[in-house]
Amino acid sequence: MQDLNNIVSQFALEGKVTAVLPLGSGLINDTYKVLTEGDAPDYVLQRVNNAIFRDVDLLQHNIEAVTRHIRGKLAAAGVPDIDRKVLRFIPLKGSPKTYWTDGQTYWRISVFIKDSFTYDTVNPKYSAFAGEAFGNFEAMLADIPDTIGETIPDFHNMELRLRQLDEAAEADCAGRLKEVRDILAEMNSMREDMCLAERLFREGKLPKRICHCDTKVSNMLFDAEGRPLCVIDLDTTMPGFVFSDFGDFMRTAGSTLPEDDPAYDKVALRKEIFEPFARGYISGATFLTPTEKDNLPYGALRFSYMQAVRFFADYLNGDTYYKIKYPEHNLVRTRNQMALLHSQLDNFDYMNNYITQL
Ligand code: GN1
Ligand code: MG
Protein backbone atom coordinates (compact mmCIF):
# COMPACT_ATOMS: atom_id res chain seq x y z
CA MET A 1 0.00 0.00 0.00
CA GLN A 2 1.44 3.32 -1.03
CA ASP A 3 1.52 6.33 1.23
CA LEU A 4 -1.55 8.13 -0.08
CA ASN A 5 -0.92 11.16 2.11
CA ASN A 6 2.46 11.65 0.51
CA ILE A 7 0.89 11.44 -2.96
CA VAL A 8 -1.84 13.89 -2.03
CA SER A 9 0.74 16.31 -0.67
CA GLN A 10 2.28 16.66 -4.16
CA PHE A 11 -0.81 18.53 -5.41
CA ALA A 12 -1.74 22.18 -4.87
CA LEU A 13 -4.85 21.49 -2.76
CA GLU A 14 -6.74 23.94 -0.59
CA GLY A 15 -7.31 23.00 3.03
CA LYS A 16 -5.83 20.44 5.36
CA VAL A 17 -6.42 16.81 4.43
CA THR A 18 -8.15 14.82 7.17
CA ALA A 19 -8.73 11.43 5.51
CA VAL A 20 -8.34 9.46 2.27
CA LEU A 21 -11.07 6.85 1.77
CA PRO A 22 -11.88 4.33 -1.01
CA LEU A 23 -14.54 5.54 -3.47
CA GLY A 24 -16.53 4.19 -6.41
CA SER A 25 -16.87 0.97 -8.34
CA GLY A 26 -14.62 1.40 -11.41
CA LEU A 27 -13.13 -1.76 -12.86
CA ILE A 28 -9.86 -0.21 -14.04
CA ASN A 29 -8.50 2.66 -11.92
CA ASP A 30 -8.35 2.93 -8.11
CA THR A 31 -10.33 5.83 -6.71
CA TYR A 32 -10.32 7.57 -3.32
CA LYS A 33 -12.09 10.49 -1.74
CA VAL A 34 -9.85 13.04 -0.05
CA LEU A 35 -11.58 14.80 2.82
CA THR A 36 -10.44 18.22 3.97
CA GLU A 37 -11.10 20.44 6.96
CA GLY A 38 -13.52 23.37 6.99
CA ASP A 39 -14.68 25.12 3.82
CA ALA A 40 -12.04 23.72 1.46
CA PRO A 41 -13.43 21.35 -1.19
CA ASP A 42 -13.04 17.60 -0.92
CA TYR A 43 -11.19 15.89 -3.75
CA VAL A 44 -11.08 12.71 -5.78
CA LEU A 45 -7.71 10.98 -5.96
CA GLN A 46 -7.19 8.41 -8.69
CA ARG A 47 -4.45 6.04 -9.51
CA VAL A 48 -4.52 5.70 -13.28
CA ASN A 49 -4.01 2.12 -14.36
CA ASN A 50 -1.01 2.60 -16.62
CA ALA A 51 -0.92 -1.06 -17.64
CA ILE A 52 -4.12 -0.24 -19.54
CA PHE A 53 -3.64 3.47 -20.22
CA ARG A 54 -0.06 3.31 -21.46
CA ASP A 55 0.35 6.99 -22.20
CA VAL A 56 -0.81 8.89 -19.14
CA ASP A 57 0.69 12.11 -20.44
CA LEU A 58 -1.51 11.93 -23.56
CA LEU A 59 -4.47 10.93 -21.40
CA GLN A 60 -4.16 13.94 -19.10
CA HIS A 61 -3.53 16.20 -22.08
CA ASN A 62 -6.84 14.97 -23.57
CA ILE A 63 -8.71 15.46 -20.32
CA GLU A 64 -7.36 18.96 -19.78
CA ALA A 65 -8.31 19.93 -23.34
CA VAL A 66 -11.79 18.39 -23.04
CA THR A 67 -12.61 19.98 -19.69
CA ARG A 68 -11.23 23.35 -20.80
CA HIS A 69 -13.31 23.29 -23.97
CA ILE A 70 -16.50 22.26 -22.19
CA ARG A 71 -15.94 24.88 -19.50
CA GLY A 72 -15.63 27.53 -22.22
CA LYS A 73 -18.83 26.35 -23.92
CA LEU A 74 -20.80 26.37 -20.69
CA ALA A 75 -19.54 29.85 -19.82
CA ALA A 76 -20.43 31.15 -23.30
CA ALA A 77 -23.93 29.71 -22.94
CA GLY A 78 -24.33 31.43 -19.57
CA VAL A 79 -24.86 28.13 -17.73
CA PRO A 80 -24.91 28.72 -13.96
CA ASP A 81 -22.86 26.75 -11.44
CA ILE A 82 -20.22 25.62 -13.97
CA ASP A 83 -18.02 24.00 -11.31
CA ARG A 84 -20.73 21.41 -10.78
CA LYS A 85 -21.06 20.69 -14.53
CA VAL A 86 -17.49 19.94 -15.54
CA LEU A 87 -14.54 18.37 -13.72
CA ARG A 88 -11.57 20.41 -12.57
CA PHE A 89 -8.14 18.80 -12.22
CA ILE A 90 -5.59 20.12 -9.75
CA PRO A 91 -1.99 20.90 -10.78
CA LEU A 92 1.06 19.83 -8.84
CA LYS A 93 2.69 22.24 -6.43
CA GLY A 94 4.95 24.45 -8.53
CA SER A 95 4.07 22.85 -11.88
CA PRO A 96 1.13 23.06 -14.30
CA LYS A 97 1.13 19.28 -14.70
CA THR A 98 -2.06 17.56 -13.54
CA TYR A 99 -0.60 14.19 -12.68
CA TRP A 100 2.14 12.91 -10.43
CA THR A 101 4.23 9.81 -10.94
CA ASP A 102 6.95 8.07 -8.99
CA GLY A 103 7.97 6.42 -12.25
CA GLN A 104 5.78 3.39 -11.58
CA THR A 105 2.37 4.60 -10.54
CA TYR A 106 0.40 7.58 -11.87
CA TRP A 107 -1.93 9.76 -9.83
CA ARG A 108 -4.25 12.70 -10.38
CA ILE A 109 -6.71 14.72 -8.34
CA SER A 110 -9.94 16.47 -9.27
CA VAL A 111 -12.33 18.50 -7.16
CA PHE A 112 -15.13 16.42 -5.63
CA ILE A 113 -18.42 17.96 -6.72
CA LYS A 114 -20.35 18.66 -3.53
CA ASP A 115 -23.70 16.94 -3.04
CA SER A 116 -23.29 14.82 -6.13
CA PHE A 117 -24.09 11.14 -6.34
CA THR A 118 -23.47 8.22 -8.66
CA TYR A 119 -26.07 5.56 -9.34
CA ASP A 120 -26.06 2.18 -10.99
CA THR A 121 -29.41 2.95 -12.49
CA VAL A 122 -31.55 5.95 -13.34
CA ASN A 123 -35.27 6.62 -13.33
CA PRO A 124 -37.20 7.12 -16.58
CA LYS A 125 -37.73 10.81 -15.97
CA TYR A 126 -34.06 11.60 -15.62
CA SER A 127 -32.86 9.27 -18.33
CA ALA A 128 -34.11 11.85 -20.84
CA PHE A 129 -31.76 14.38 -19.22
CA ALA A 130 -28.97 11.82 -19.20
CA GLY A 131 -29.46 11.24 -22.93
CA GLU A 132 -29.41 14.94 -23.57
CA ALA A 133 -26.29 15.33 -21.39
CA PHE A 134 -24.32 12.72 -23.34
CA GLY A 135 -25.60 14.13 -26.64
CA ASN A 136 -24.56 17.61 -25.53
CA PHE A 137 -21.19 16.31 -24.41
CA GLU A 138 -20.48 15.10 -27.95
CA ALA A 139 -21.99 18.25 -29.49
CA MET A 140 -19.77 20.50 -27.34
CA LEU A 141 -16.67 18.56 -28.38
CA ALA A 142 -17.47 18.67 -32.09
CA ASP A 143 -15.33 21.80 -32.56
CA ILE A 144 -12.57 21.20 -30.02
CA PRO A 145 -9.39 22.75 -31.49
CA ASP A 146 -6.97 20.32 -29.78
CA THR A 147 -6.03 16.95 -31.21
CA ILE A 148 -7.54 14.26 -29.01
CA GLY A 149 -5.47 11.08 -29.21
CA GLU A 150 -6.58 7.50 -28.67
CA THR A 151 -5.76 6.68 -25.05
CA ILE A 152 -6.37 3.00 -25.82
CA PRO A 153 -5.77 2.43 -29.54
CA ASP A 154 -8.77 0.81 -31.27
CA PHE A 155 -10.63 0.77 -27.96
CA HIS A 156 -14.11 0.15 -29.40
CA ASN A 157 -13.07 -1.56 -32.61
CA MET A 158 -15.31 -4.63 -32.77
CA GLU A 159 -13.09 -6.40 -35.28
CA LEU A 160 -10.09 -6.01 -32.98
CA ARG A 161 -12.10 -7.20 -29.96
CA LEU A 162 -13.05 -10.31 -31.92
CA ARG A 163 -9.44 -10.94 -32.89
CA GLN A 164 -8.56 -10.69 -29.21
CA LEU A 165 -11.29 -13.21 -28.45
CA ASP A 166 -9.88 -15.55 -31.10
CA GLU A 167 -6.43 -15.26 -29.54
CA ALA A 168 -7.80 -15.87 -26.05
CA ALA A 169 -9.71 -18.96 -27.23
CA GLU A 170 -6.72 -20.23 -29.19
CA ALA A 171 -4.35 -19.88 -26.22
CA ASP A 172 -6.94 -20.95 -23.62
CA CYS A 173 -4.31 -20.22 -21.00
CA ALA A 174 -6.60 -20.65 -17.99
CA GLY A 175 -7.94 -23.98 -19.37
CA ARG A 176 -11.50 -22.69 -19.19
CA LEU A 177 -12.69 -23.01 -22.78
CA LYS A 178 -13.92 -26.61 -22.64
CA GLU A 179 -16.73 -25.64 -20.23
CA VAL A 180 -17.91 -22.63 -22.23
CA ARG A 181 -17.65 -23.54 -25.92
CA ASP A 182 -21.35 -22.85 -26.36
CA ILE A 183 -20.78 -19.17 -25.58
CA LEU A 184 -17.93 -18.93 -28.04
CA ALA A 185 -20.02 -20.59 -30.75
CA GLU A 186 -22.87 -18.21 -30.22
CA MET A 187 -20.61 -15.17 -30.26
CA ASN A 188 -19.00 -16.38 -33.46
CA SER A 189 -22.39 -16.74 -35.14
CA MET A 190 -23.01 -13.01 -34.66
CA ARG A 191 -19.67 -11.59 -35.73
CA GLU A 192 -20.61 -10.24 -39.15
CA ASP A 193 -23.72 -8.44 -37.95
CA MET A 194 -21.94 -6.82 -35.04
CA CYS A 195 -19.12 -5.40 -37.19
CA LEU A 196 -21.53 -3.26 -39.21
CA ALA A 197 -20.03 0.02 -37.91
CA GLU A 198 -16.52 -0.90 -39.06
CA ARG A 199 -17.87 -1.73 -42.54
CA LEU A 200 -19.85 1.51 -42.76
CA PHE A 201 -16.74 3.42 -41.71
CA ARG A 202 -14.62 1.79 -44.42
CA GLU A 203 -17.30 2.62 -46.97
CA GLY A 204 -17.13 6.27 -45.91
CA LYS A 205 -20.71 6.20 -44.59
CA LEU A 206 -20.01 6.63 -40.87
CA PRO A 207 -17.89 9.36 -39.26
CA LYS A 208 -15.75 9.22 -36.15
CA ARG A 209 -16.39 11.90 -33.59
CA ILE A 210 -15.02 12.68 -30.16
CA CYS A 211 -17.09 10.45 -27.90
CA HIS A 212 -16.94 9.61 -24.21
CA CYS A 213 -16.64 5.85 -24.86
CA ASP A 214 -17.57 4.76 -21.33
CA THR A 215 -21.07 6.11 -20.79
CA LYS A 216 -22.12 3.55 -18.28
CA VAL A 217 -24.57 5.14 -15.92
CA SER A 218 -22.08 5.11 -13.04
CA ASN A 219 -19.92 7.54 -15.04
CA MET A 220 -22.33 10.41 -14.59
CA LEU A 221 -22.86 12.54 -11.49
CA PHE A 222 -26.39 13.38 -10.40
CA ASP A 223 -27.73 15.87 -7.88
CA ALA A 224 -29.81 14.86 -4.87
CA GLU A 225 -33.01 14.89 -6.97
CA GLY A 226 -31.49 12.60 -9.60
CA ARG A 227 -30.85 15.23 -12.28
CA PRO A 228 -27.58 14.75 -14.21
CA LEU A 229 -24.87 17.24 -13.26
CA CYS A 230 -21.68 16.22 -14.91
CA VAL A 231 -20.08 13.57 -17.09
CA ILE A 232 -17.07 11.94 -15.38
CA ASP A 233 -14.45 9.26 -16.11
CA LEU A 234 -13.05 11.02 -19.16
CA ASP A 235 -10.09 8.67 -19.72
CA THR A 236 -11.57 7.12 -22.82
CA THR A 237 -12.87 10.33 -24.42
CA MET A 238 -11.49 9.92 -27.93
CA PRO A 239 -12.51 9.54 -31.57
CA GLY A 240 -15.16 6.84 -31.98
CA PHE A 241 -18.62 6.10 -33.32
CA VAL A 242 -21.64 7.62 -31.61
CA PHE A 243 -22.92 4.08 -31.02
CA SER A 244 -20.39 3.85 -28.20
CA ASP A 245 -22.10 6.46 -26.09
CA PHE A 246 -25.64 5.48 -26.93
CA GLY A 247 -24.90 1.79 -26.56
CA ASP A 248 -23.01 1.84 -23.28
CA PHE A 249 -25.76 3.74 -21.53
CA MET A 250 -28.39 1.35 -22.86
CA ARG A 251 -26.19 -1.53 -21.75
CA THR A 252 -26.17 -0.28 -18.17
CA ALA A 253 -29.13 1.96 -17.30
CA GLY A 254 -31.15 0.34 -20.08
CA SER A 255 -30.98 -3.09 -18.44
CA THR A 256 -33.17 -4.37 -15.63
CA LEU A 257 -30.12 -5.67 -13.74
CA PRO A 258 -26.47 -4.69 -13.20
CA GLU A 259 -23.88 -6.12 -15.58
CA ASP A 260 -22.76 -8.80 -13.14
CA ASP A 261 -26.09 -10.01 -11.78
CA PRO A 262 -26.45 -13.79 -12.22
CA ALA A 263 -30.29 -13.75 -12.51
CA TYR A 264 -29.95 -14.02 -16.30
CA ASP A 265 -33.59 -14.81 -16.94
CA LYS A 266 -34.51 -11.46 -15.40
CA VAL A 267 -32.13 -9.44 -17.52
CA ALA A 268 -34.09 -7.41 -20.06
CA LEU A 269 -34.17 -4.18 -22.01
CA ARG A 270 -35.94 -1.41 -20.08
CA LYS A 271 -38.22 0.27 -22.59
CA GLU A 272 -39.05 2.96 -20.04
CA ILE A 273 -35.37 3.97 -20.16
CA PHE A 274 -34.76 3.38 -23.85
CA GLU A 275 -37.49 5.75 -24.98
CA PRO A 276 -36.64 8.87 -22.97
CA PHE A 277 -32.91 8.27 -23.31
CA ALA A 278 -33.19 8.00 -27.09
CA ARG A 279 -35.32 11.13 -27.22
CA GLY A 280 -32.92 13.07 -25.00
CA TYR A 281 -29.84 11.84 -26.82
CA ILE A 282 -31.18 12.75 -30.26
CA SER A 283 -32.18 16.21 -29.05
CA GLY A 284 -28.69 16.81 -27.58
CA ALA A 285 -26.69 15.25 -30.42
CA THR A 286 -27.80 17.82 -32.97
CA PHE A 287 -25.18 16.72 -35.53
CA LEU A 288 -26.37 13.13 -36.12
CA THR A 289 -26.46 11.95 -39.74
CA PRO A 290 -29.36 9.71 -40.84
CA THR A 291 -27.02 6.70 -40.84
CA GLU A 292 -26.01 7.41 -37.25
CA LYS A 293 -29.56 7.98 -36.07
CA ASP A 294 -31.08 5.00 -37.90
CA ASN A 295 -28.46 2.66 -36.48
CA LEU A 296 -28.80 3.63 -32.82
CA PRO A 297 -30.67 0.37 -32.04
CA TYR A 298 -27.75 -1.49 -33.60
CA GLY A 299 -25.55 0.61 -31.29
CA ALA A 300 -27.39 -0.87 -28.32
CA LEU A 301 -26.87 -4.44 -29.54
CA ARG A 302 -23.27 -3.73 -30.45
CA PHE A 303 -22.34 -2.67 -26.94
CA SER A 304 -23.93 -5.56 -25.06
CA TYR A 305 -22.18 -7.84 -27.52
CA MET A 306 -18.84 -6.04 -27.36
CA GLN A 307 -18.88 -6.05 -23.58
CA ALA A 308 -19.77 -9.76 -23.53
CA VAL A 309 -16.86 -10.43 -25.90
CA ARG A 310 -14.48 -8.40 -23.74
CA PHE A 311 -15.57 -10.02 -20.45
CA PHE A 312 -15.41 -13.45 -22.06
CA ALA A 313 -11.93 -12.92 -23.53
CA ASP A 314 -10.77 -11.79 -20.09
CA TYR A 315 -12.30 -14.89 -18.53
CA LEU A 316 -10.47 -17.11 -21.01
CA ASN A 317 -7.25 -15.18 -20.39
CA GLY A 318 -7.49 -15.85 -16.65
CA ASP A 319 -8.85 -12.44 -15.57
CA THR A 320 -5.97 -10.15 -16.38
CA TYR A 321 -7.96 -6.99 -17.28
CA TYR A 322 -11.09 -6.37 -15.21
CA LYS A 323 -11.11 -6.36 -11.43
CA ILE A 324 -12.97 -9.44 -10.22
CA LYS A 325 -14.45 -10.35 -6.83
CA TYR A 326 -14.66 -14.14 -7.37
CA PRO A 327 -13.23 -16.59 -9.93
CA GLU A 328 -16.33 -16.85 -12.16
CA HIS A 329 -17.06 -13.13 -12.08
CA ASN A 330 -16.15 -12.48 -15.71
CA LEU A 331 -18.17 -15.51 -16.82
CA VAL A 332 -21.22 -14.25 -14.95
CA ARG A 333 -20.74 -10.84 -16.56
CA THR A 334 -20.49 -12.50 -19.96
CA ARG A 335 -23.72 -14.46 -19.54
CA ASN A 336 -25.49 -11.39 -18.20
CA GLN A 337 -24.48 -9.30 -21.21
CA MET A 338 -25.52 -12.08 -23.61
CA ALA A 339 -28.90 -12.25 -21.87
CA LEU A 340 -29.29 -8.51 -22.36
CA LEU A 341 -28.31 -8.88 -25.99
CA HIS A 342 -31.05 -11.50 -26.47
CA SER A 343 -33.63 -9.21 -24.97
CA GLN A 344 -32.46 -6.35 -27.20
CA LEU A 345 -32.62 -8.64 -30.25
CA ASP A 346 -36.18 -9.59 -29.31
CA ASN A 347 -36.94 -5.87 -29.21
CA PHE A 348 -34.95 -4.83 -32.25
CA ASP A 349 -37.99 -4.05 -34.43
CA TYR A 350 -39.58 -2.17 -31.58
CA MET A 351 -36.43 -0.05 -31.07
CA ASN A 352 -36.14 0.66 -34.79
CA ASN A 353 -39.78 1.72 -35.02
CA TYR A 354 -39.40 3.98 -32.03
CA ILE A 355 -36.28 5.71 -33.40
CA THR A 356 -37.79 6.11 -36.86
CA GLN A 357 -40.70 8.16 -35.58
CA LEU A 358 -38.46 10.57 -33.61
C1 GN1 B 1 -14.43 -0.30 -17.54
O1 GN1 B 1 -13.27 2.16 -15.84
P1 GN1 B 1 -14.68 1.68 -15.77
O2 GN1 B 1 -14.89 0.66 -14.71
O3 GN1 B 1 -15.65 2.85 -15.75
C2 GN1 B 1 -13.97 -0.31 -19.00
C3 GN1 B 1 -15.16 -0.06 -19.91
C4 GN1 B 1 -16.17 -1.13 -19.68
C5 GN1 B 1 -16.57 -1.18 -18.21
C6 GN1 B 1 -17.48 -2.34 -17.91
C7 GN1 B 1 -10.81 1.49 -19.90
O4 GN1 B 1 -14.95 0.96 -17.20
O5 GN1 B 1 -14.75 -0.07 -21.25
O6 GN1 B 1 -17.30 -0.89 -20.43
O7 GN1 B 1 -15.41 -1.29 -17.37
N1 GN1 B 1 -12.94 0.71 -19.21
C8 GN1 B 1 -11.81 0.41 -19.84
O8 GN1 B 1 -18.07 -2.15 -16.67
O9 GN1 B 1 -11.58 -0.68 -20.33
MG1 MG C 1 -16.05 4.63 -14.10
Describe this structure in words.
The chain has 2 domains: 4-111, Phosphorylase Kinase, domain 1; 124-357, Aminoglycoside 3'-phosphotransferase, Chain: A, domain 2. It contains 13 helices and 9 strands. It is globular, with a radius of gyration of 20 Å. The chain starts with a helix and ends with a helix. A hairpin with a 6-residue loop joins strand 2 and strand 3 (43-48). The strands form 3 sheets. It has a 5-stranded antiparallel β-sheet. Strands 6-9 form a two-stranded antiparallel ribbon. The protein has a two-stranded antiparallel sheet with strand order 7-8. The chain is α+β, with helices and mostly antiparallel strands and 358 residues long. 2-acetamido-2-deoxy-1-O-phosphono-alpha-D-glucopyranose binds at residues 26-28, 52, 214, 216, 219, 233, 236, 259, 307. Residues 26-28, 52, 214, 216, 219, 233, 236, 259, 307 line the site of 2-acetamido-2-deoxy-1-O-phosphono-alpha-D-glucopyranose (GN1).
Entry keywords:
binds 2-acetamido-2-deoxy-1-O-phosphono-alpha-D-glucopyranose; globular; alpha+beta; Aminoglycoside 3'-phosphotransferase, Chain: A, domain 2; 2 domains; five-stranded antiparallel beta sheet; binds magnesium ion; 358 residues; Phosphorylase Kinase, domain 1; single chain; 11% strand; two-stranded antiparallel ribbon
